[in-house]
Amino acid sequence: MIVIHPKVSGLLERGGVPGLREALQTAVELEHAVIPPYLYALYSLVPGDNSAAAEIIRSVVNEEMLHLTLAANLLNAVGGRPVLDAPDVLPRYPGPLPGTVADGLVVGLAPFSVPLVRDTFMAIEEPEHPEDYGPEPAMPAREPLTIGQFYRQIRTTIEGLGEGVFTGKRDRQVTTGFLPGAIAVTGVASASQAIDTIIDQGEGTRTSPWDGTDVAHYYRFAEIVHGRRLIRFPPEQRWAYLGDPIIVDPAGIRDVPVNPTLAGYPAGSAAQRACRSFNYTYTTLLKALHATFNGTPGKLRSAIDIMSSLQQQALDMMAGTTTHGVPAGPSFEWQPTD
Amino acid sequence: MAAAGMGRSTRGVGEGESLVSYLNPLRLHFAGSFEAAVSTVNNDPVHFDNTRFQPSYAEPATGTALNGSFNPRGSGDWRLHDCQVTSAFLADGAPAPGTDPVLACAVADSDDRAPAKLVDLDPEQQLVSQIFAFELRIAMASGATLLRGEFAPAAFMDLWDRARAVPASGPGAGDVAAGAMYQSVLTRVRWGDVSGSPFLRALRRASGARLSVKFNVDGFGKAPGDDFLRGRVVGTIGPAAPGEPRHFVAGRQFMAAPGAGGHFFVPAGGVNFCAAAVDHAARRVYLDLGNALPTSVPGGAPADLGDLALHSAGGVAPLGVLPAARYTDPGWYPATAGVAVFPPDRPLTGAELAAVSAGPLALAAAPSDQGPVVISEPDTGLFVRADQFVYRLNPGESAEVPLFATRFGQPYAEAGVVTVPVPEQLQPNSPLAPGQAPPVAVPADALRYPARVVTDKRGKARLRLRAADPGRPRDYIDGQVYALCPVLEPVIVSPGDPYPFNQWNFVSVLVWSGFAPDEPLTWHGCIEPVLRQYGNLYPVMRDFLDLGDYEQVCAHAERLADQFSRGIDDPGSMPVTRDLSAAKREALVRWLTKPGDDGKPLLGEPRQPAAPAPPLPEPDRQVPVQGKAAAASRRPAAQRRTRLTGGTR
Known about the structure:
Chain A is an all-alpha fold. In chain A, about 45% of the residues lie in helices and about 0% in strands. Chain A has two domains: about 5-255, Ferritin; about 260-340, no CATH class. A two-stranded antiparallel sheet of chain A has the order 1-2. Chain A is globular and about 60 Å long. Among the domains of chain B are: about 380-515, Immunoglobulins (Immunoglobulin-like), CATH 2.60.40.10; about 525-595, no CATH class. Chain B contains ten helices and 31 strands. The interface of A and B includes residues 301 and 337 of A.
């Protein structure tokens, strides 16, 4: 599992409103930082092949976009200013995710593999007690935190601060039909609902892997590892990985590099040019999302256009179409001009 | 010269007043790369026929199969890469100080939206590719933007065979050797903190919310390699004035005579069409050779034509010389964008200026300045051009084409302009099925316009185009495409004495067919054929969904409805190809947003399927030249090697 840094936990315990805002900015960065590794693995799957695994990752990415939006809505609701348009917001791959301990889980950019899903993706989404769905244990102040516990602590902090903490302007809230579940956060109740959505979709509820519409991310990834869908099994409706098979065909995975960097590609090569171009579009996306979460919610439409462009550029790089036949991968680095 | 419709020169912009347009003392130059990820499945008209479409048309061409040409997965993206400001000049002609931060800036595309798009007008008019949704900015390396503006959509012009040392056929031929230029204005210009830049402060003072931009493109890499889909771009940005043309310089027009061979245009004298502006205040001539000097290799330095001397008609000595050693230097073209100043080292004398104003300018090339003329203005100095020259019209719509007539760069007032159809510039042919492409420019009466208009005292006229429903003259391709050429009456002369003419100087118009959708709108009714055709011609969409699959379309209904609703200037506008009529787009959006009881857009009843047409056999031959060169070669004008001689034939 990933472990949130005690410093972040401390912000929530003792930081008051500024600490809450800082912790929520960490949440924004964390939700963003998990998306590139998921996308990199997703795009390494040859379109049409390994479609079940691809669909699982794609569905998780869509919900991570929702979580990013909800984290930004939470931060805006408490009078904060989400920051996504700065180079230091970007994680380094490989490296720890934002807000997590440095000697914990290392996350990178790698082509799809079952070990990647098992050792990294499931670890990101792992609940504190994945094997049982029992009641939440009492949380010692200095114990390491999972993402889910981190969000529960945020909820506790918000509840402690009360309705008076919601000083943000309503028109900064992002709600859209493109992201079902993106609710406006205006008070303790809606904040709690937004946090529940994030936790339940990531880890499941305390009693079930089912988040209401699907199994939670952790269990969705586990389906890939087990090679079977997670289903409720009669007669006791117990959950088990006994559903339809999820077959991974290694021939349908592109042989793309692990943790590529712009500087690592040969200077002037088509791969380096394509990587740079991708990174510029990616930086453009971060600027568009920043604008979306900072008073122009209508910019989300533009951000979605940019995501489509990113997808196509990544697929073309990985297929070798734009890289002189050599499979290459994007590095997700800050590139303010191209 | 015919007497009818004789106009007169009047005083106007440029004579004793400040120069406008990028061809100006106050300007910056930039150089770098462009990317044109054009989609090529729609390069063959017969690919529009859903009944004969084959999955192989979505695959790249091979040595013997045409398939979907060289880039079937193209997104249509138009991008700039590695473009740097290379020089900047202030209004007095002096270079901007070396400390001016603009000299370290990039010229970049948008950091705010999806990439711009490069789009053909029609499969049967592929030679006016337009850039849409292009935001251009000048930015520091940190990304801080010093100015940004919207590039008004523009098509390329003055397409020619620029690189000489390339084979006439094979992978290295055709588009790779081509050059062309784009000229437009940046509108809605927004300025960042330019307090540290004397150049940008001066540009803002001179121009404010609108700028003029022109860039030359060449060396496009069409074969797989490090330069695939990329080429060289070198350009100029300067001030703009509201009344001036957006897409050409209303200055001195150098007209190239056609030479033999080539795919697009080979100028007989080696130098392509170009324009000059005379700065009466500073007593200098600014000549833009950026898309006019040939190169030896694609994207290389200008080839050696000898020293280039600018002459006025009555002058004995040249007005100045551009030495071959200078312009063949690899650093010259990126640093100047081909803009040469005459005389380079002194103002024109009063007598020289008078001679410049009174008669044609000519450029001579030779080891000595008495060498042969390589390009010149026509003797009469008369010129007319449509500013915007590409139109898309729905039935019942009209457009006013702005025409500008000049004589030696001055407004040419009270001149008759006749408009002549030039369908021979269109490309009604199919590489896959020669002879089977639908006809163009019929019915003629679906596009109406006055036979003659007269310029006003500013040399301007408006040619009103009115579109009627052309019916379905092309069956599986919507609408019809037309080409019209405005011609000044005084230059209509006998066919034996042709007036210098730029073959690309004409107006292209796509008129869409009327569309009466079935009601209620259903997938099996009128929706599926439209979406399936788009999906066929733009295969990259399959990364997202199969537009021929009802369930997948339903799953993406909200997003599709959004994108089919967008304006043509929006980077996310669908179809990317911008070739769907307003009526069809409206029907699609209405269908997508009016679900039935099951929450999905209406499916309807399947129709009796038409018997599939037999697929077209691949020709048993080597794949010929592709891309623009293939389109250009399919013009009747190219096949007949005709050219307009006054426009009355």
